Amino acid sequence: MKKRFLALALVASMCVSLAACGNSGSKETEGTAANSSASETTASGQTEAEGDPVKGGTLTISLSASPSKLDPIHYSGTYESQIIKEVCDTLIEYNSDLSEYVPALATDWTVSDDGITYVFNIRQGVKFQKGKYQDGREMTAEDVAYSLNRSGELSDSNRLSMLDKAEATGDYEVTCTLKSANSSFLTALTDGGNAIVPKEEVEGWGDDFGSHLIGTGPFAMESFQLDQQAVLKKNADYWMGEPNLDEVIFKVITDSTQAANALQTGEVDIAMDLKGESVQKVKDNADLTLLETPGLHVAYVYFNMEQGPTADIKVRKALIEAVNVEEMVSSLYKYGEAQNASLPLPPGSWGYDASLESKVPGYDPEDAKKLLAEAGYGDGLTLDLYISDTEVRQNMAVLLQAYWAQVGVTLNIHASEWGTFSEVAMSNNADVYGMSWTWYPDPYFFLNKLFSTEEWGGIGNGQHYSNAKVDELLQKALEATEQSDRADYYKQALALIVDDLPGLFYANENVIYGVDGRVHDFIQRADGTIKLVTPENNVWVTD
Amino acid sequence: MLKTILKRILQSIPTLLIVITITFVLTRMIPGNPARTILGPQASAQDIAEMEIKLGLNKSKLEQYADYMIGILHGDFGTSYVYNRPVTSLIAERIPNTLVITLTSLVIAIFIGVGIGVLSAIKQYSILDYIFMILALVGVSMPIFWLGLMLVNLFSVQLGWLPALGMGSMSKGIGDVISHMVLPCFCLATIPTATFARITRSSMLEVIHSDSIKALRARGIKESSIIWKHALKNALPPIVTVLGLQLASAFTGAILTESIFSWPGMGTMIVSAIDNRDYMLIQGTVLFIAVVFVVVNLLVDVVYMIINPRVSYDSKGGN
């Protein structure tokens, strides 16, 4: 009996202790699908579109985690939004290089001078996919107002929190009133979380709507098996034109090595999130294409701005000067999967200001030692670094440990899976934490989230950065309606942030896909969103 | 015997209560908060607070525990935070998939493992015996994760004989289903096969050197009949004990195997439940595995009583 009990306890504790070695670190960069505007530096990877498109066939895409909540208002990961955005449409979209908004379910729109009222003209003749509670009827202004209000009130992630109300002011006209001027509204509308859905289906299915998602998109949900796959069938009546593909399968493959293997065996046609050696494997295989685009991504270590030694700007400067960023990035990303960075905003964002790069201290270990001595740490100091347990983060931590040891700083590394890591990072309890950030190219989604005082307690600003002038500029940028004015404010804010040296922003990772040679006319987007049918492309496959 | 079984069932109740409590405490001790994990990195403090209320995590731990216990007494094992569905229905949906590979691999393991064990015992200290026992030693110490990826690399990527992952579909025929099962079952069977081989060998050795077997030989009974009929039967009890343990641990082994092969069973569900801090689902699945453990052990004891009537669990009388 005693032995059996011990065995039971062991099973219980084994299951739980898996938490300490789980593989969800990847969540870090999968928070939200990043869509957005203007980015001159963003090139797009693309597969050949030559030849006559072939109708029919199946395209299989790997997803790194299982979608579980496909109701737009409940989704939380990019792997979920990929499916939502094939089944549903949003009011507006971004074009493939994310340089401008393009009409989708709205044909055009106007914004009032005070930035509070938005009026959208809704496309006519768009049909919903057939479902249990409606028979493929036309989408109307009422559906748009219903979907937006629903998201405004119920979205788990408050994806439309700036919306006061949306009203159908005509058969094909919707008027949205915001609580206060907020320029991130249009960007938010491109999010799968704010997709347009039919009321009957939502109310008919209730909590189960996600498993029976219905929208106006190019593909309709055929079946959804948790942790296994989602099968989509083409919507022949799609308003933009008939999709070339008959079927799209999103297959869940959590292990990234296995995703690369499945690409090689032909079990999937597109493998996302390739890393390390898998990148080389795809490069070496003549049947596969490696698509690579600079991502809207920043990898960084963030210093505690309020407590401990790093509250002193001299210490922060010393820690930055102690690291040879170029050397570190080239050894971390051996296959060229990232570029060196210096600012907390990706170059693909329209708020980026290259002239600020020179303000970031360069590699100077001698000066670093001097600064540490001045700050009272001539005899050295000990810091705790917190990271999630992904390979790239762990390698970074080891390099950082070596660089900082050269200037007399002892670094203790604490690597844990995402849930544990985020708990520490959000609570202002880490001397230093290392992670990455990726979202829309609208600077709001980087600068506000990482540096606004309002974001204390979120993982963006878990280190309690606070600068009244920065807060003021960020607010002004949010209220301005002209993008050029907004960019100006963001650049000013960015300059102040760089002066405060809140962290070491070292790399911009690329979006990397492995694609089978049979896939044609596929356009890779810097935000990592997969769009199979757009005004610019209509993916097709050969056998 | 019925009385003994009933008694054993009653005895398992406190054990399960302790398991429930330990699991409850341990899941709450994992750092990380389900609301934060569900909402993703960009969630604000306010979003998280709202989600906590929705999930009932704003209540005190004691209240949560009481709610959970009362629920169990009413047959309600809670609702998964992430999937928003009753834990029992999620488990019921996954368990057939896990049983398919665990049972298949155990059957393979029994036949191959016992066969090897018997052969090794008969040919003790022969080259064959050494080869088998070295293989068995390698087998029990094999890191399953590594083995799985190597098998995929060889049989799927290089040779292209078998699919790398996933579960086949009956709509594509039985061949598709079986081809998808080969690698995961091979992986899952490795450790049990080696274990059976080792235990069978040592148990058989003990038996074939016993006086009863010598007596059979003296009576001139055919050697093959002595080995497979008489000796093996007497060597069975330790093998059955190990079988029980292996069945239960195959469930935990499935956690790794299913993750590698994207096999939609209990294992992948437990891993994602832990990653997502889906407390209800973690508690439900651990409890389920505990119940399996208890039931299997009970069955083992019953089988034990049948194959070896000298064993009695009835402390009072005996037979």
UniProtKB/TrEMBL annotation, chain B:
Pfam families: BPD_transp_1, BPD_transp_1_N. Residues 95-304 form the ABC transmembrane type-1 domain. The chain crosses the membrane at residues 12-30, 99-119, 131-157, 177-197, 239-261, 281-307. One of its GO terms (biological process) is transmembrane transport. Keywords: Cell membrane, Membrane, Transmembrane, Transmembrane helix, Transport. GO terms for cellular component: plasma membrane. It comes from the Bacteria. It is found in: Cell membrane. InterPro entries: BPD_transp_1_N (IPR045621), MetI-like (IPR000515), MetI-like_sf (IPR035906). It is a multi-pass membrane protein. Belongs to the binding-protein-dependent transport system permease family. This is ABC transporter permease.
